[in-house]
């Protein structure tokens, strides 16, 4: 439950249009709702600005469906990461009941319902190679769902640095940059030397044997000679999108 909904409830009570008992029914599942398989944190968005998100990997479909139903009932919004097409189908059935339409981002496996329509500021997401797009898409979709305007620039890896020239303007326009790269993970350092904006680097698990599932890219980003680059965990586009959104929102104040 977000602050606008609680504020609306309080205004209705103030006007005499809502009884205390009915308001209590709306608020009874704060701070969380215990549905057996999970304790759904309806209070999270009010507490720190980011709603609870379902990480689908490793969960059973019936459990995901139960959690999603609880969240949709309370807020009408939903964000799921690492989801399959089968899970998307399950969510579609739930959404039909409340006349909502889920969106499925196939590369990243993200499902969204009720994305914020008003976008603020600007986040630029740079994707080194086409193989890194699942991670960069997760970052882009996350930030956009939360309410940030996002611009994504794909296939600008270090094997062809001249491709970055066409994206130079966005270095000054964006409030924060996300850079996703695998292989040797050099792109965040290159871009870091070209901009004064904060950079969130995301190592991906893309690469041949000695990439070690993204560890080589992770170490390269952590050891960058460009100061001030923040590094996420391997393939953690979601975390990058959340952090970038929070930084972007600070620019509004």
How would you describe this structure in keywords?
253 residues, alpha/beta, Rossmann fold, 5-stranded parallel beta sheet, 4-stranded mixed beta sheet, 10 helices, globular
Notes on the structure:
By secondary structure, this protein is of the alpha/beta class. It has helices at 3-15, 20-27, 44-48, 61-75, 85-97, 133-146, 168-173, 187-192, 215-222, 237-250; strands spanning 33-34, 39-40, 54-55, 78-81, 103-105, 110-113, 120-127, 148-153, 176-181, 199-203, 229-231. The protein folds into two domains: 31-113, no CATH class; 120-250, Rossmann fold (3-Layer(aba) Sandwich). The strands form three sheets. It has a five-stranded parallel beta sheet with strand order 8-7-9-10-11. Strands 3-4-6-5 form a four-stranded mixed beta sheet, sandwiched between helices. A two-stranded antiparallel ribbon has the order 1-2. The two termini are 23 Å apart. It is globular, with a radius of gyration of 20 Å. The chain has ten helices and eleven strands. Helix 4 packs parallel to helix 5 and helix 6 (133-146) runs parallel beside helix 10 (237-250). Strand 3, helix 4 (61-75) and strand 4 form a beta-alpha-beta unit. The mean pLDDT is 86.
């Amino acid at each position: 439950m977000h602050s606008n909904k609680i504020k609306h409830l309080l205004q209705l009570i103030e006007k005499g249009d809502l009884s205390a008992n009915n308001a209590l029914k709306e608020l009874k599942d704060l701070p969380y709702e215990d549905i057996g398989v999970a304790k759904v944190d309806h209070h999270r968005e009010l507490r720190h600005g980011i709603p609870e998100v379902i990480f689908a990997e490793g969960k059973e479909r019936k459990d995901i469906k139960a959690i999603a139903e609880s969240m949709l009932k309370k807020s009408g919004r939903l964000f799921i990461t690492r989801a399959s097409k089968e899970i998307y189908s399950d969510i579609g059935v739930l959404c039909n009941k409340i006349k909502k339409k889920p969106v499925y981002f196939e590369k990243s496996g993200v499902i969204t319902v009720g994305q914020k329509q008003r976008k603020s500021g600007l986040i630029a997401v740079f994707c080194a190679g086409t193989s890194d797009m699942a991670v960069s898409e997760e970052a882009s979709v996350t930030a956009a769902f939360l309410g940030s305007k996002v611009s994504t620039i794909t296939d600008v890896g270090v094997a062809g640095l001249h491709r970055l020239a066409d994206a130079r303007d966005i270095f000054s326009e964006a409030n924060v940059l996300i850079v996703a790269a695998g292989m040797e993970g050099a792109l965040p350092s290159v871009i870091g030397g070209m901009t004064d904006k904060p950079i969130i680097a995301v190592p991906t698990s893309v690469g041949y044997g000695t990439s070690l599932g993204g560890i080589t890219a992770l170490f390269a980003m952590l050891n960058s000679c460009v100061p001030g680059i923040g590094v996420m965990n391997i393939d953690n586009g979601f975390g990058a999108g959340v952090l970038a959104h929070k930084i972007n929102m600070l620019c509004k104040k």
